[in-house]
Structure formats: C-alpha cells, structure tokens
Amino acid sequence: MDEKLVLRLVAAGMCVLELVMVVSTEFWPAALVMAVVFGLLAWRVPRGGRGVLVGLVVAFLVELVPLVFYPRESAGDWVVQGLTGLLSLVGLIVALRLLTTGRHATAASA
User: Positive or negative, the Cα torsion across 83, 17, 30, 70?
Assistant: First the structure.
C-alpha cells in the first residue's frame, strides 16, 4: 500500500477521533483545533511536501507525548486513548519514513 495513502488515512482517522473528543471532553477547543489541523494536513498529503510531513510529525507528537498522563476511568477512555496512541504512532513512523527517504516530493517536482 502506498505510504502517502496510509498517512492520509491515519491523519483522517485522527481528525475523526478529535471530532469525537469535541463532544465528549471538557477540553473541546483543543480537540477542535487538532481536528482541523489533522483534516487540513490529511487533505494536503497527496500534493504536500516536506512542510506537510513536518506538520504531521508535530501533530502526532502533540497527541503521543501527553497520552501517558491522561486518566483512564472507563472502558471508553481506554478505547479512545488506545486508538489515539496506535494511529499517532503509525502516522509518526510513516511520516518520518517519508521524510528520511526523500519520497515526500510531489509528482510535479520529482
């Protein structure tokens, strides 16, 4: 499977997860901002370049780093945080791979 497609699907999945968080958490403004960020970056992946990949790396790190500090009081917390961690880790790996291998160029500039 094409790595850019995987990255786009993961970023879109993170956008949906953040939208779920908008209606289910008291930190809804931050979740809304991250949903917009992931949505815009997912949309730009096919045409993007280094900037889009760097933006995704930062966004995935913003999700991963504080994840260990979140309280897990219900099964829903475990599911949402588990999906967030899994998607963020996969997205981070794919984005870093594209950055380090130099395959981030668009068709027009390649």
Answer: negative
φ/ψ region of 53 (left if φ > 0, alpha if ψ in -120 to 50, else beta) reads: alpha
pLDDT for 98-110, tens place per residue?
Answer: 999 876 655 444 4
Q: What is the pTM of this model?
A: 0.86
Provide the b/e sequence for 61-89 (b: ≥16 CB within 10 Å): eebbeeeeeeeeeeeeeeebbeebeebbe
As a whole number of angstroms, the distance between CA 41 and CA 52 comes to 6
Mean pLDDT of 7-34: 92
